[in-house]
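Ticket #4471: structure export looks truncated?
Reporter: QA, pipeline team
Priority: medium

Steps to reproduce: submit the single chain below to the structure queue and open the exported record.
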Amino acid sequence: MISAFFKALGDLPSPRFRSVLLQCVGLSLLTAIALWALIAWLLASTELIGTLPWVGDALETVVDVLGNIAAFFLMILLLPAFLGIFAGLYVETICRAVEERHYPHLEPPRDQSITEGVVVGLKFAVYLIVMNLLLLVLIFFPPVYLVAGWVLNGILLGREYLEMVGFRRMEPRELREFCRKQRSTIFFSGLILAMLASIPLINLLLPLYGTSMLLHVFENARHKTN
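Actual output as written to the record:
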């Protein structure tokens, strides 16, 4: 796991990784801006309390302004999730770049369609968004919220990134058995990613770094069990 951590760090500066990162960040920013604009339009075109006498218009303006500010910060919080969705389109590109550098002896992986990549990315993002929204009930207890967030996201990130790279090489039943045997390694790998995900800006690298790191974890574990 430690070697996988440092190997993945060494993969980040490669030209192919930079290209994928720029494309994912660009698409994610466009998505966030479009959603923010949609929310702003809905707030502006919907009269929530403007019908109240005397103070209705003023309160409506306050609600619109506060709603736009809240939507802006929500889009910032969701940016890593958007990155995860779009990174799902580039899983094969990322994995091939890592394999060409570190594992050139591997046979070609099984074919995966673009639809499969999108579905994996969407499922991953939905899990992260829903579970982290549920965690918000602990936000008034910061230490508990932080630790619970790391543990929960460690489970999710480890499993989801391992599945993304593992399905390229194993059938579902075989991969489930592999994950069962390697669950502690996968969890602690995910925990490292969860801690990195809590650092602003660094979390933007997570889809690429997480894919690379879990591919190294996967191949190292496969090599030891074979």
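Status: closed, not a bug. The export was complete when the record was re-opened. Leaving a note from the reviewer for reference: The two ends are 18 Å apart (CA to CA).
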